[in-house]
UniProtKB/TrEMBL annotation:
Entry function: Catalyzes the reduction of 1-pyrroline-5-carboxylate (PCA) to L-proline.
Gene this chain is encoded by: proC
EC id: 1.5.1.2
Similarity annotation: Belongs to the pyrroline-5-carboxylate reductase family.
Regions annotated as coiled coil: none
Subcellular location as annotated: Cytoplasm
The species this protein was found in: Idiomarina baltica OS145
Protein name: Pyrroline-5-carboxylate reductase
Amino acid sequence: MNDIRKIAFIGAGNMTQSIVGGMCKSGYPADHVFVSNPSPEKLEKMKSNLGVNTSQDNIEVIEQADVIVLSVKPQLMEQVCADIKSKVSNLADKLIITIAAGIRMPKYRTYLGDDITIIRVMPNTPSLVGQGMSGLVTDSADDKDKAYVTDVFDGVGDTLWVADEDQLDILGAVAGSGPAYFFEFMDSLAKGATELGFDPEKARAMVQQTCLGAAQMAKESDLTLEDLRKQVTSKGGSTAKGVEVYQQRDLHNISADAVKAAVKRNQEMADLF
Ligand SMILES: NC(=O)C1=CN([C@@H]2O[C@H](COP(=O)(O)OP(=O)(O)OC[C@H]3O[C@@H](n4cnc5c(N)ncnc54)[C@H](OP(=O)(O)O)[C@@H]3O)[C@@H](O)[C@H]2O)C=CC1
Ligand SMILES: O=C(O)[C@@H]1CCC=N1
C-alpha cells in the first residue's frame, strides 16, 4: 500500500476493533491510526494491544487525520455528526467513510455539509482475521480516494464495489450480517452433535473446520454450489438423508426470508436515522 493516510475511527466498538485489528496485522502503521470513544476501556485495550493513538474526544482525533471513519450505531449518527460539524471547519478537505448500516449518503450531506466527499463501506467482523467481506459505494469520491479505501479494506479481506445504495443494503444483509447467520448455523450443527453425546469442544472444532473447508473449496472451485453439494451427497448415503431434512424444511426459503428481513431493516434505518 503506497497511499498511507492518517485515519480516525469515531467509535471503538466491535466493528472498529475488527477493522483496526486487521489493518494493523496487515501492516498499516499504527501511528497513522486514531480512535475515539466516550468510555476509556476499549481505547486502553486498543492502545496497549495495537499501539494506535486514542482519545475520548472525537474532535481531537478528527483534527489529526485526513480520513474519518464514522463507526457509531446508526441511532447516534445524527448527534455525533452535529457535534463534528459544529467544531470542525475543514470537513470538505477530509475523506469521510461511514460503516453504519442503513443511513444513506444524502442524509450525511444534511448532517455534515453538501461539499463532503463520502464513501459508504459495509464491512463485517471477520476483518479482524483478514477474512472480511466489505461492500463499497460512493457518489462523490475520485479514483484516488476510491483506490485508497479499496486498499485499506483489501488489507482486511475482500472488497466489492456496488452500483448504488440499494445494492449495499442487500450486501449488508448477506455479508455484513452473514457472520451472525453462520455462527447461528454452526452453533446449531455443534448442538446437533452434542445432543447425540459428542464432546462440546470437539463438536465446535469439527464444525468450524468443516465450515472453513467448505468455504475455501467454494472459493477455489469452478463448480456451482449445487454441484459441490452433489459431490458430497452419495446416492443412498448418509448426506442425502441430512440434506433431505434441510430441503423438506425449506432452508432456501428460510435464508431468502432472513435476507429480506435484514434488507427491510436497513431501509427502515435509512428513514429513521
Ligand atoms: N458489528 C458488525 O458486524 C457491523 C457493524 N456495522 C456498523 O458499524 C457501526 C458500529 O457497530 P458496532 O461496532 O457493532 O457497534 P458497537 O456498539 O460495538 O460500537 C459503537 C461504539 O460507539 C461508541 N460511541 C457511542 N457514542 C459515541 C460518541 N458520541 N462518539 C464516539 N463513539 C461513540 C460506543 O462507545 P461506548 O460503548 O463506550 O458507549 C461503542 O464503543 C454501526 O453503525 C453498524 O451499523 C457495519 C457492518 C457490520
Ligand atoms: O446488525 C447491524 O445492523 C449491523 C449491520 C451489519 C451487521 N451488523
